[in-house]
Design a protein that fits this description.
This protein is α/β, with parallel strands linked by helices. Helices cover 30% and strands 15% of the residues. It contains four helices and six strands; from the N terminus they run αββαβαβββα. It has helices spanning 2-18, 77-85, 100-112, 145-155, and strands spanning 32-33, 69-70, 89-93, 117-121, 129-133, 136-140.
Length: 165
């Protein structure tokens, strides 16, 4: 009986530990700084500020954030923006401009940072890979695992509402 109780306590401890937010880096933010106007909750996609050809890095957004994870289908921009406000990093790719091997590598990165990243295809992207955090974008013409890892490590939880999951 004592062994069962110890196993339950250990399991709960592991689950809690894995879901703790990453402490923010103090290194200078990576990626290009982007302007996006006001920050408010909106009800309609037409109220979003979406830069042409790349994912948004902030601005008006939907009331409900996305959960972290690996998505096989495009996700609503308005929900992803809200997740950025909570300190997540959104890794997007144009399905037409990347290879299956690229997608598998991106899945690996997202899996390694599971509580802090969203990975999804975004057919509206005109570049192969775009990685965004609150107010920042990293545009990549080809897969660069090191650059993406650095971006995630430095930019996670550098937002108005960090660590909210």
């Amino acid at each position: 009986m004592l062994a069962v109780a110890a196993a339950i306590v250990a399991f709960i401890g592991i689950v809690v530990w894995q879901n703790l937010p990453v402490s923010p880096s103090t290194d200078p933010l990576l990626g290009e700084a982007m302007e996006f106007g006001t920050v408010e909750h909106v009800d309609s996609e037409v109220q979003l500020i979406l830069p042409e050809g790349e994912p948004p890095t902030g601005g008006p957004h939907f009331d409900q954030p996305l959960r972290s994870g690996i998505y096989d289908d495009p996700v609503p921009d308005g929900n992803a923006i809200h997740s950025l406000e909570h300190g997540m990093v959104w890794i997007t790719y144009s399905p037409e401009l990347v290879t299956a091997d690229d997608i598998e590598a991106l899945r690996g990165i997202a899996g390694d940072h599971g509580n802090d990243t969203i990975l999804s295809p975004r057919p509206l992207n005109t570049i192969p890979i775009a990685v965004v955090s609150w107010g920042r974008i990293l545009r990549l013409d080809r897969l660069d695992v090191g650059a993406i890892e650095d971006f995630v490590n430095v930019n996670t939880n550098r937002s108005p509402e960090p660590g909210v999951r």
